[in-house]
Amino acid sequence: MIVEPRLVEYLNALECELPPHLANLEKYAKDHEVPIIRKEAQSLLRFLVETKQPKKILEVGTAIGFSASFLCEYMPKDCKITTIEKVPMRIVEAEKNLAALKRKDDVKLIIGDAGEVLKNLREAGNTYDFVFMDAAKGQYMAFLEDILPMLEEGAVFVTDNVLQEGSIMESKFTIERRDRTIHMRMRDYLYELKHNPYLTTSIVAVGDGMSLSVKHERN
Ligand SMILES: C[S@@+](CC[C@H](N)C(=O)[O-])C[C@H]1O[C@@H](n2cnc3c(N)ncnc32)[C@H](O)[C@@H]1O
After folding, report:
1. What CATH number does the domain located at 5-215 have?
2. Which tens digits make up the pLDDT trace of 131-158?
3. What pTM was estimated for this model as a whole?
């Protein structure tokens, strides 16, 4: 944990209970070791969605559909979500969970590798006003190439797990050799988010680190 664990525990204890269907999904994820957004990230994501009031959400990395169901619970009535997942075992669970939602018609699961799916969505001229990226960390930079042109003016773009349990601040020489590529790629990604002329980005130590960007005209 990046933040003092007792503080996180205290803050999480302040959270209100999730609606039963989300609490059940969260429990399933915990019992089956499926990585889903942490409590702290949930709270921030909810705040962002309720502030932004998006109409078109894109999520990269569905897993079993917890965060898509979560976003669906708090997004405006006229909002739709498209979410992408490639792992068959996860897709089976996600399809079942998303089909059980009251607003199931507002959620579309696209099966496939996000690299390819994002390209197709971009080429088809899709645009979004809220994007949540929570997939393979090493591919974030590649995904950004297709996501950026799809962000509408004023769109909110959130990425999860950007601080890698704090190891992001360490020199690459202290990182285990097998983790070095991902470490360097994440650093490049964060640099890009902070220096891209179309984005204003804040990186916050919430959960495992989240980047919060807004798209605007070129600086
Ligand atoms: C951290 S989990 C997502 C958790 C989910 N957002 C939640 O909070 O409920 C990341 C997911 O991204 C998927 N993923 C990773 N790389 C992907 C890719 N290239 N294309 C599609 N899905 C991918 C993984 O299979 C995994 O289920």
Report:
1. 3.40.50.150
2. 999 998 899 999 999 999 999 999 999 9
3. 0.95
